[in-house]
Every structure is written in structure tokens, then in C-alpha cells.
Amino acid sequence: MKNLLTIAGSDSSGGAGVQADLKTFGALQTYGMSVITAVTAQNTQGVTGVENISPEMVKAQMDAVYADIQVHGTKIGMVSSAAIVEAIEEMLIKWRPVNVVLDPVMVSKSNHRLLQPQAEKALFEKLLPLAALVTPNLPEAEVMIGSSIQTLEEMEAAAQRIFRLGPKAVLVKGGHYTGEAVDILYDGNEMRRITCDRIPGKNTHGTGCTLSSAITVYLSRGDSLEQAVRKAKAYVSEGIRQGLSIGGGVGPLHHYHPFYLPF
Ligand SMILES: Nc1ncnc2c1ncn2[C@@H]1O[C@H](COP(=O)(O)OP(=O)(O)O)[C@@H](O)[C@H]1O
Ligand SMILES: Cc1ncc(COP(=O)(O)O)c(N)n1
Asked: Cross-referenced PANTHER family, in alphabetical order (predicted)?
């Protein structure tokens, strides 16, 4: 059994954040644990409130988990504030966990800020260098490099520039692109285009959270980075295919595929 930790924000509607991460860990038959950074009041239509957990409490949660349980992979999502970034950095340096996957969550699909603007620099400078993989979507990659991305070639150039900020590898996700769902994986050596058919349908709330959690699972099982990304992408695609039309807005992908055994 692999033990997986998510450090992320709570989504009251259960589609993204900690809830999506724990559902992914459970569906992929690992033991899931959570360090909550912020609580959001959120549904399929938007975010109506955010309350941060104190940096001291974030540190206490991380200490509690890492001191007691062997953690085979850690996924980091919404970190909300610069003070929380610093708390997480301090604990990562203290505990040196393996397989750290950073999803640099900045804005929700419903267009609500989940990272304070003044925390962007802290996230880039303090957490990127500690990550085995960072998984920006297109708008996040644009913020990281400070220019717009229109083509696959520009996605590849962005991956190279983000790599220079210190992570061991970069996955620029193409969910916001047109045509096939192409993600660019760059490890400082090889540039790969990882492509899946674009699944029609609007229920994509939580795709980024789910992808980074599933990658963390597969890395913890010893898969190569490329294999882990390919398997996680297949899991997300099936989840979108079975997406749930609940609520009045963007519904969540589905995590329990009783007739579909991922890998
Ligand atoms: N309609 C879709 N069909 C298939 N894959 C998708 C679709 N939308 C997003 N994806 C995939 O889901 C993952 C998350 O991507 P993205 O939506 O860009 O992230 P985020 O949720 O962080 O904005 C990526 O692997 C992306 O290619
Ligand atoms: C607590 C939390 N974390 C992350 C996301 C991003 O997910 P998405 O990009 O699907 O809106 C979210 N909406 N809420």
C-alpha cells in the first residue's frame, strides 16, 4: 500500500481541491491523507468565500503526518498566501518528502483567484525548486513566463523557461488549448507531447487537481515520469467521459469507474 498526502484547499462541492485529490487516491487504491491550507465556499458555479488556515496550523498538520507515517508521494495544490508558501517550504526542507508534485493553482475554472497575487513570487521562488514536477495549465504558465502562449511551440518554449526556475520537470497542460488535449512534458533533456482525444462535455471541474494527484500515485509506485503522466491522463480522460452533471455550472469529473480498471 502506498501512502499519499495532498497539501491543498478544501472545495465544499467536492469537485476540486483536497476532495478531488482524496477521491483520486482512493480510486487508485492508495491511502490518502490531507493537509488543508484554506477552506473555500465553492460549488459548480463559483467560489463565494476563501478562509486561509494559519501557517502554524499548516505546519502542525505537516509535522503530524510526516513524523508518524511514511509518505510515498506528496501533491501540493492551492497554497493561497505567501505565508502558507513559506510554511510549506520550511516543512518540505525539514522532512524532504519524495515524489513532490506541485500543481501551481492560481485561478479556479470559475475565474476566482485562489492564490493571492503577492504570493506568486513566493510560490515560484520557494516551492518550484523543491518539486519533482510542476503542472501549470496555460494561464498559469503564462503568468510564470510573463507572456502569452498561443501555439504548441510556445507551450514547449514555456516548459523550457519554467524548467529554469528549478523544478526537476515541467508539464504544461493543454486543457485550455483547442483541438486534442495535448500536454507538454519537459525534464531538461527530452521534450514530449502527450496527447489524448479531447472529450466533449462541460464537466471538467477538478481535472487539474485529479491529474496531479494521479501522477503522484503512479510516481509513488515507481513508474517513470512519462509513464506516470500517460496513466494519469488516461484516468482523467475516463473521469471526464463519465463526468457528473450535478449543479448548475461546471460539474466534476467522476472518480469511481467500476467497470474501468485504470492500471
Ligand atoms: N475536454 C478534455 N478532454 C480530455 N482531456 C482534457 C480535457 N480538458 C482537460 N483535459 C486534460 O486534463 C488535464 C488537466 O488540464 P487543464 O484543464 O489544462 O488543467 P486545470 O484544471 O489545472 O486548468 C490535462 O491533462 C488536460 O490535457
Ligand atoms: C480548493 C480548490 N483547489 C483547486 C481548484 C482548481 O480546480 P479547477 O481548475 O478545476 O477549478 C479549485 N477550484 N478549488
From this structure: HYDROXYMETHYLPYRIMIDINE_PHOSPHOMETHYLPYRIMIDINE KINASE THI20-RELATED, PHOSPHOMETHYLPYRIMIDINE KINASE
